[in-house]
Amino acid sequence: MDTQPYGVDAKGSWEWLRFASQLPAKPFQFTAQSTNKLVYKGRCILREITGLNNNATGGTLTLLDGEDTTGTIAGTQGYAASSQFSHSFASFGILMEIGCFLVPGGQSLTGTVALVPLWEYNITPPGE
User: Does residue 6 lie in a domain region?
Assistant: First the structure.
């Protein structure tokens, strides 16, 4: 007996991804993060990054598609000393196939990564 879900698998179709990119994003918070962090493991759409740098120097935050520093760069965001930052990623977001990994650039940052978690099959609710 096959234990796999049955139905039409549309997870890679452009129509389905266009629909998924319009779903509400879920916030994934990081607080006083000065070291690398796996924000989300799994397939998702990166929509936005917002944050606060309370340090006396600026830097660059990098988001990678992966589970560690060997992932592919999905986006970067520069930030100034003692300032807030925010960046939206394209009108439909950026598809992350493996996960979202945060590299804060040596500063202690607080903020939120807005992601749309995706599912493996179109008959499974998001996040399961």
Answer: no
Going residue by residue through the chain (128 aa), what tens digit of pLDDT does each one get?
455 555 455 556 778 778 878 888 999 999 999 999 999 999 999 999 999 999 999 999 999 999 999 999 999 999 999 999 999 988 889 999 999 999 998 889 999 999 999 875 555 555 44
Q: Name the token pair of 64.
A: 């990678």
| Prediction pTM value | 0.81
Decide if 3 is inside a domain.
Answer: no
Confirm whether 2 is domain-assigned.
no
Domain total in the chain: 1
State the residue range of the domain holding 60: 14-117
64 within some domain: yes
Quickly list H helices, 21-74.
none
